[in-house]
Write a structure and sequence with these properties.
Organism: Sinomonas terricola
Order of helices and strands: EHEHEHEHEHEEHEHHHHHH
EC number: 1.5.1.2
Shape: elongated
Family: Belongs to the pyrroline-5-carboxylate reductase family.
CATH superfamily of the largest domain: NAD(P)-binding Rossmann-like Domain
CATH class of the largest domain: Alpha Beta
Low-confidence stretches: none
Number of domains: 2
CATH architecture of the largest domain: 3-Layer(aba) Sandwich
Number of strands: 8
Structural class: alpha/beta
Radius of gyration: 21 Å
Bound molecules: NADPH dihydro-nicotinamide-adenine-dinucleotide phosphate, (2S)-3,4-dihydro-2H-pyrrole-2-carboxylic acid
CATH topology of the largest domain: Rossmann fold
Distance between the termini: 36 Å
Keywords: Amino-acid biosynthesis, Cytoplasm, NADP, Oxidoreductase, Proline biosynthesis
Helix content: 40-55%
Strand content: 5-15%
Pfam families: F420_oxidored, P5CR_dimer
Strand order of the largest sheet: 3-2-1-4-5-6-7-8
Length: 276
């Protein structure tokens, strides 16, 4: 791994990727990160020992960061992606691969904002990348070579599971694995609240909920794990779990989750249209 990697925008998502790659052996001197606020740049520099610059302090920080980079990972909010691409375009090394982690920004929109011929790869990661248990989808742009796509897949394999998907599927990937950690955290929150309502000390209930979701996650991580089979192994006939699952089914929880994922994918398509 001998890339010089520029992280442009380093908030929740790009920090998770940065942390995951450093933990996997990418050298901190091969990494540079930009943000807007000086205090955030200081935080990243202190936490990871990387060079971090703030556009609030050096207005050309993004341009400085991409000079000499072979990989540029754009991690700003979707609304800022094409402006940032246009800003770095004039100084971007010709062969530098531009990776976007942004939801909703299409390859076509990004390619249009960059110099002609710039290789682009659109990804959809998730924050468990920070602990090497992420999921990252990869979709190659018009100018990305097979070799460049494979190199990015190899690098991101350090973050967890990498899948290559056609771009049309990114909104669905986003609705399942991009947003998915939030769904799992939401479940943990709801379980903790439920325990407190049943009379447990709220702190104890939160601990039980957290460790239960973690433990279930470990079991799901075993090769060939089947969530339905694992669930059935907890569910004794006419026992307690059966009543809980029956209540979830009666209340339509699977449909609620499907509706939520559909709403997420629809929002992604709407943002793409809004960005024009
Ligand atoms: N959060 C997630 O779980 C996931 C997010 N994504 C995608 O990742 C992208 C970032 O999201 P997220 O990390 O949550 O957002 P955050 O708001 O946490 O991070 C955005 C970062 O971009 C910085 N920034 C904004 N504008 C500029 C600029 N012009 N130049 C340099 N830095 C800039 C901000 O700096 P400062 O901190 O100083 O304001 C901040 O560090 C989005 O496009 C999102 O769709 C994709 C999958 C999952
Ligand atoms: O909420 C969002 O828009 C981003 C994309 C996927 C997860 N977080």
């Amino acid at each position: 791994m001998s890339y010089k990697i520029a992280f442009l925008g380093c908030g929740s998502m790009n920090e998770a990727i940065l942390a995951g790659l450093l933990a996997a052996g990418v050298h901190k001197t091969d990494v540079i990160a930009t943000v807007r606020r000086g205090e955030r740049a200081d935080e990243l520099a202190k936490r990871y020992g990387v060079t971090a610059m703030a556009t609030g302090e050096e207005s050309d920080a993004n341009q400085q960061a991409v000079r000499g980079a072979s990989l540029v990972i754009i991690g700003v909010k979707p609304i800022g992606v094409t402006d940032l691409a246009a800003e770095i375009g004039p100084v971007l090394p010709h062969g530098a691969v531009v990776v976007s982690v942004a939801a909703a920004v299409s390859i076509e929109q990004l390619e249009r904002a960059l110099p002609a011929g710039q290789p682009v790869i659109r990804t959809m990661p998730n924050t468990p990348a920070r602990v090497g248990r992420g999921v990252v989808s990869v979709s190659g742009g018009t100018n990305a070579t097979r070799e460049q796509i494979d190199q990015v897949k190899e690098l991101f394999a350090n973050l967890g599971l990498v899948v290559e998907v056609p771009e049309e599927q990114v909104d669905a990937v986003s609705a399942v694995s991009g947003s998915g950690p939030a769904y799992a955290f939401y479940l943990a929150e709801a379980m903790a609240d439920a325990g407190a309502k049943l009379g447990l000390d709220p702190e104890l209930s939160l601990l039980l909920a957290r460790e239960t979701v973690v433990g279930a996650g470990y079991m799901l991580a075993e090769p060939g794990a089947d969530p339905a089979a694992l669930r059935k192994a907890v569910t004794s006939p006419n026992g307690t779990t059966e009543r809980a699952i029956a209540t979830f089914e009666e209340r339509g929880l699977p449909d609620i989750i499907a509706d939520g994922a559909r709403a997420a994918a629809e929002r992604s398509r709407a943002i793409t249209r809004e960005l024009g």
